[in-house]
Write a structure and sequence with these properties.
- The chain is mostly helical.
- It contains 6 helices and 3 strands, in the order ααβααβααβ.
- Strands 1-2-3 form a 3-stranded mixed β-sheet, with helices on both faces.
- The longest helix is centred in the last third of the chain and has 13 residues, at about 120-135.
- The chain is globular.
């Protein structure tokens, strides 16, 4: 939820990354919420970068776009596979906490798009909200 911040061993987001078939570049960190350096991330050369957006960042589409653009334009990330292939995503914190099952679908699709072509996390999210809360899904939850 802040620059160069990640999740390490025992962190709930590490569990999501692994459950979705990914490898966390900070998996060997000695704390559950490590602060990484730009050099560490560049050297790790992640294939996918997922950044959490909190209510402090804003909740409209522009907030998501700004956060993603910030990551895409960081000098240290410019040569990473994630940036070169435009596999940088922003996800609202609600999908990592109270709607974690939906967040897990996005993680899996982003990490393995060819394996999950038939899965539409937005459609599942919409159905989840309609079925269990009796309302329509509104707002932005991921970008792009």
């Amino acid at each position: 939820y802040k620059q160069w911040f990640s999740t390490g061993q025992g962190g709930s987001y590490t569990e999501m990354i692994v459950a979705a078939g990914g490898i966390n570049i900070a998996e060997n960190a000695t704390v559950s919420s490590p602060q990484l350096s730009a050099e560490f991330v560049a050297e790790a050369n992640p294939e996918v970068i997922i950044r959490m957006l909190t209510y402090l960042d804003g909740e409209d589409l522009v907030a998501f776009q700004n956060l993603r653009n910030d990551m895409l334009t960081r000098t240290a990330l410019s040569e990473t596979k994630a940036v070169v292939e435009s596999r940088v995503y922003v996800i609202k914190s609600a999908l990592l906490v109270e709607r974690q099952v939906i967040g897990l679908l996005y993680f899996a699709k982003w990490q393995h798009p060819n394996s999950f072509q038939d899965i539409d996390p937005t459609a599942v999210h919409r159905e989840y909200i309609q079925r269990f809360f009796g309302t329509e899904l509104t707002g932005v939850f991921v970008y792009p």
